[in-house]
Amino acid sequence: xxxxxxxxxxxxxxxxxxxxxxxxxxxxxxxxxxxxxxxxxxxxxxxxxxxxxxxxxxxxxxxxxxxxxxxxxxxxxxxxxxxxxxxxxxxxxxxxxxxxxxxxxxxxxxxxxxxxxxxxxxxxxxxxxxxxxxxxxxxxxxxxxxxxxxxxxxxxxxxxxxxxxxxxxxxxxxxxxxxxxxxxxxxxxxxxxxxxxxxxxxxxxxxxxxxxxxxxxxxxxxxxxxxxxxxxxxxxxxxxxxxxxxxxxxxxxxxxxxxx
Length: 260
Ligand SMILES: [Zn+2]
Ligand SMILES: [Zn+2]
Description:
Layout: E1 2-8, E2 15-19, E3 24-27, H1 33-42, E4 52-54, H2 60-63, H3 66-73, E5 77-79, H4 81-87, E6 96-98, E7 105-107, E8 110-116, E9 125-131, E10 134-139, H5 147-152, E11 158-162, H6 167-172, H7 178-185, H8 193-204, E12 211-215, H9 224-237, E13 244-247, E14 257-259
Parallel strand pairs: 3-4, 4-5, 5-6, 10-11, 11-12, 12-13
Antiparallel strand pairs: 1-2, 1-14, 2-3, 7-8, 8-9, 9-10
The structure holds zinc ion (2 copies).
One zinc ion binds next to loops.
């Protein structure tokens, strides 16, 4: 079983706390070090209790707080070599543990399988975490799901997945220039509500998936109720109505979510 608290998720910063029986991990550090500390403490966890920070990619909404936070509390940053290279300065005072995509490793009692995802960063990743026979997938910042992504997530019990935008709201948005919209929509951009629902549809047959957490919603181009409705529909249509769907937000720490 995993205990999950999403500390914050959205275009302005992403971080989540994952705990097993004896290990606490942070996945991404896109909030300020101060916010990370405060929000962890609100979850009853002191930063020094973390065994590590697991990093999906170097974009600032995932890494902004890394340098100060990890250096201050001496928390090792687990990332792949190209992400470390892209972060250079931010990792100067931070203990780092490099791993290879596709090769499993462990932090405490959690097994971690990192796999490549298509996104416009140096070497972006998704993760499948395992503890005591329970599997949890983390899939954020990707333009589409490749066969490798789907293979890597076979058998998951829980999934955090990006639902970045609603297609109609993105088309109607007047703040973003066309070039930015194209970037978001591209195969190396972000997943829409529809895109995420399609990914989940392809995982249903091979997985006992019973809990889905939606995240990384665009402030202007999505709304939790739209994202939830579309995902909910996917499970209802498949006769899997017992699957729980919730949505993480930027401002408020999520309830404790059990992955089992
Ligand atoms: Zn990104
Ligand atoms: Zn992001």
